[in-house]
Amino acid sequence: MKDDKMTFKIAIRLFKGEKAFGPGIAELLENIEKDGSLHKASKSMNIAYSKAWKILKDSENALGFQLVEGKRGGVSGGGSKLSKNGYEILKKYREFEQRIFEESERIFTDIF
Description:
Elements: E1 14-16, E2 18-21, H1 23-35, H2 38-44, H3 49-63, E3 68-71, E4 79-82, H4 84-111
Antiparallel strand pairs: 1-2, 3-4
Helix pairs in contact: 1-2, 2-3
């Protein structure tokens, strides 16, 4: 049986002149934090490494700061981790998103 309950969905995007941060880059950063690698993060999202790299660089250029610190591969292998700024914007974005959702849920319930 089909669930006929009405719901809503909100996607938060931050702009600094142009689109600077949103759900895609947030998910990418979370996966980099979890996997320790941009390459592994792109695989877990089922996107090409080149696309993940472009998403990351576009966001960094729009924001004006580095989101990820990386080291090149080699004998010990490479890796990536969030920069201090990357960690902070991700944390603030998720908090903002959660608060927007909670308030929107209240408004939605009042209206519908």
